[in-house]
Design brief:
Layout lengths: L13 E2 L2 E6 L4 E4 L5 E5 L6 E2 L2 E4 L2 E4 L6 E8 L3 E3 L3 E9 L6 H4 L4
Parallel strand pairs: 2-10
Antiparallel strand pairs: 1-3, 3-7, 4-5, 4-8, 6-7, 8-9, 8-10
């Protein structure tokens, strides 16, 4: 009988610590080594698999309309979680900006 002992999962990292974007925008987070899964939460307590684009070393959120928390998970025999990052969504959205040409003449 051969027994293989797998190492414990090492906690990945997620950066920057906190960031702010305009409503309807996206944020790119850097993931540390070993991040296998990115999770999101509206409140920092209830976690689900994040919606967005995960590449080697980074994760880009989906278009956000409300502030959202993110964490990375490394999975082995157990699961180790990164620090929690809050992406704050400011109330002014990208679509709320109107160019002077679109405003028309000012009386």
């Amino acid at each position: 009988i051969q027994v293989t002992v797998l190492p414990r999962a090492l906690a990945p990292s997620l950066a920057p610590p906190d960031t702010a974007i305009c409503r309807g925008g996206r944020a790119t987070l850097r993931t540390g080594a070993g991040a296998a899964l990115i999770e999101q939460s509206p409140d920092g307590f209830t976690w689900t698999q994040a919606v967005g684009e995960q590449n080697a070393g980074s994760f880009t959120t989906d278009f956000l309309n409300s502030s959202t928390y993110y964490r990375a998970a490394a999975i082995s025999c157990d699961t180790a979680y990164s620090n929690v990052v809050r992406v704050e969504v400011n109330s002014v959205g990208l679509a709320d900006f109107v160019s002077p040409a679109e405003r028309g003449p000012v009386d």
